[in-house]
Amino acid sequence: MTDGSGSPAEVAREALDRLVVDVPDFPEPGVVFKDITPVLADHDGFTAVVAALAEHGRLDDGQVVDKVVGMEARGFILAAPVALALGAGFVPVRKAGKLPRETHAVSYSLEYGDATLELHRDAISPGDRVLLVDDVLATGGTARATRELVEACGGIVTGLAVLMELSFLPGRETVGDLPVSSLVTL
Predict the structure, then answer these.
(1) Taking a C-beta distance cutoff of 8 angstroms, is the pair 140, 171 a contact?
(2) One of 58, 74, 121, 172 is an active-site residue; which one?
(3) Threshold 0.85, pTM exceeds
(4) Per-residue pLDDT tens digits for 102-156
(5) What is the C-alpha to C-alpha distance for residues 114 and 116, in angstroms, rounded to an integer?
(6) Any catalytic annotation for residue 94?
(7) How far apart are CA 13 and CA 65, in angstroms?
(8) Catalytic status, residue 74
(9) Is domain 8-185 classified as CATH 3.40.50.2020?
């Protein structure tokens, strides 16, 4: 979505700057939570964000990724419309015990404790090219665990696209050589 006012990424950055709300001391004292729900409630802002994230699912050979994977929970909200925009499949990565069939599982540490993520074993076919989508890249644990899940299925992760990257945390270091695209870096 551009109306002559800039690239999809520029329009999305303006929407994020205008609509993301800082919530101090949530979920614990000293943390400033970035609330994206106003972005989701604003049709133009949400459309701009989806268009900008979808750009990262377009590959150098002119093709698009086969699957877009969204991590629970806010990643679902972003990844599903990105998949639709690309004409790709959407695959959810869930917390342990939430998926009804046989899964791959990876446990990892995150900012506020430990977690386990799961992915249906048949959700990604060997050779599928996969874009990971989430709201924030912070410590990188969720993205790294999700990449491991996709690769356990035989998928090829082409990159990670996020709304915001918290550059003062080790997210990029944690995900290693995974290409990261962030609409806003804080």
Answers:
(1) yes
(2) 74
(3) yes
(4) 999 999 876 667 899 999 999 999 999 999 999 999 989 999 999 999 999 999 9
(5) 7
(6) no
(7) 23
(8) yes
(9) yes
